[in-house]
Design brief:
CATH superfamily of chain B: ACP-like
Distance between the termini of chain A: 42 Å
Number of domains of chain A: 1
CATH superfamily of chain A: 2-enoyl-CoA Hydratase, Chain A, domain 1
CATH architecture of chain B: Orthogonal Bundle
Mean pLDDT of chain B: 90
Shape of chain A: globular
Largest sheet of chain B: none
CATH topology of chain B: Non-ribosomal Peptide Synthetase Peptidyl Carrier Protein, Chain A
Number of helices of chain B: 4
Oligomer: heterodimer
CATH class of chain A: Alpha Beta
Low-confidence stretches of chain B: none
Largest interface: A-B, 25 and 19 residues
Helix content of chain B: 55-70%
Shape of chain B: globular
CATH architecture of chain A: Alpha-Beta Complex
Order of helices and strands of chain B: HHHH
Mean pLDDT of chain A: 92
Radius of gyration of chain B: 11 Å
Number of domains of chain B: 1
CATH topology of chain A: 2-enoyl-CoA Hydratase, Chain A, domain 1
Helix content of chain A: 40-55%
Order of helices and strands of chain A: EEEHEEHHEEHEEHHEHEHHHH
CATH class of chain B: Mainly Alpha
Strand content of chain B: under 5%
Number of strands of chain A: 11
């Protein structure tokens, strides 16, 4: 399927580049709909990889790349479903999103996250599956999960630790603070910083360069240097599932969803 | 190093430009959420712009409870 147009994402394979657009209002919160469409992408990827050189993920939403998991949907599900079933559903959701993230992470294509604005939580975890992150100057990165009594659940910690080291993970994870592209480039998270509104153009330019290389060699290089931390990723699902069972998490979710505070995203 | 007043003026200038409100309508003690009509995500975009302009890193927990331009400018001034 060279083209797909869903409610949450769309993709198009053109000139050897798969462009995946995140397009769910308000800021690409990742819930069931997004997961199902990302699963379709993961299923379609092997066929797309036969004729593509690169994959770009970007957002069509003004506020940013993605605000992460859909906490409102999560809260609603936990309220409307019997507790045991709700927790089983959360575990299942995480196992499925991990599968998608792992497929993207291990794709033989060279993958680029073209990000702007909010790159929070699950949105940052999605970007971390990519080989390169290109950001415009409006981008802001954060793992806010500790505010809810959780840890990032879409594979973010093992991938960030793989790419940048434990000190960066601890800073982001334990303070819950957000940081801008200057800091992101200093620590090596972001490979290119471009002017506001220029990120997709820059990503396309990079993808065009990648298309000049022999695909088999590029895939071999990627496989050689980029291991997938499967053991830690599996452990992450266990920890997240255990944390969700705590009443404090449900109370924090309720506070977030029902908050009229102007600053629910600030710790 | 700029004075406190210069920092306040620059914060007000940047906020007016970013959110397209007349500069003369903004005062240091205004609640910027109400005056600019912005939500928390837009406030983070203002924070990003301020960090770049002043070349500082401002952890967002330092802004907990801060909603007026004067205090925001004070937090920036403390990192210049």
């Amino acid at each position: 399927m060279k083209q797909f147009h869903g409610k949450a994402i769309s993709w198009d394979l053109k000139d050897g580049v798969i462009e995946v657009a995140l397009r769910r209002e308000p800021c690409n919160e990742i819930g069931t709909q997004s997961l199902e469409e990302l699963e379709q992408l993961a299923a379609a990827l092997p066929a797309l990889e036969e004729t593509a050189d690169a994959l770009i993920i970007y957002s069509k939403m003004t506020p940013g790349f993605s605000a992460g998991g859909d906490l409102r949907e999560l809260h609603q599900r936990m309220n409307e479903t019997e507790r045991g079933a709700a927790l089983a559903g959360i575990r299942d959701f995480h196992q499925r999103i991990h599968h998608v993230m792992n497929v993207l992470d291990a794709s033989p294509l060279t993958t680029i996250a073209a990000v702007h604005g909010i790159v929070f939580g699950g949105g940052l975890e999605l970007a971390l599956t990519c080989d390169l992150i290109i950001a415009d100057k409006t981008a802001r990165f954060c793992f806010p999960e500790l505010r809810l009594g959780l840890i990032p659940g879409f594979g973010g910690i093992p991938r960030l630790k793989r790419d940048l080291g434990n000190a960066v993970v601890r800073d982001l994870l334990l303070t819950g603070r957000s940081f801008n592209t200057t800091k992101a480039q200093q620590i090596g998270l972001v490979s290119q910083v471009v002017a506001e509104g220029e990120v997709l153009r820059a990503a396309r330019g990079t993808a065009a360069q990648l298309g000049k290389f022999d695909r088999t060699t590029a895939a071999a290089a990627k496989k050689f240097i980029k291991h997938i931390p499967y053991d830690e990723l599996r452990r992450e699902i266990e920890i997240v599932s255990e944390l969700y069972a705590r009443p404090a998490v449900q109370a924090a979710l309720k506070n977030f969803v029902e908050s009229t505070d102007a600053q629910p995203y600030l710790p | 190093m700029p004075t406190q007043q210069q920092t306040i003026d620059e914060v007000l200038d940047l906020a007016a430009t970013q959110f397209k409100v007349p500069r003369e309508t903004l005062s240091p003690d205004d609640d910027f959420f109400r005056k600019l009509g912005i939500d928390s995500l837009q406030a983070l975009s203002l924070l990003t712009r301020l960090e770049q302009h002043f070349n500082v890193e401002l952890p967002d927990y330092e802004l907990q409870g801060v909603s007026d331009f004067r205090t925001l400018a004070e937090r920036i001034q403390s990192r210049l």
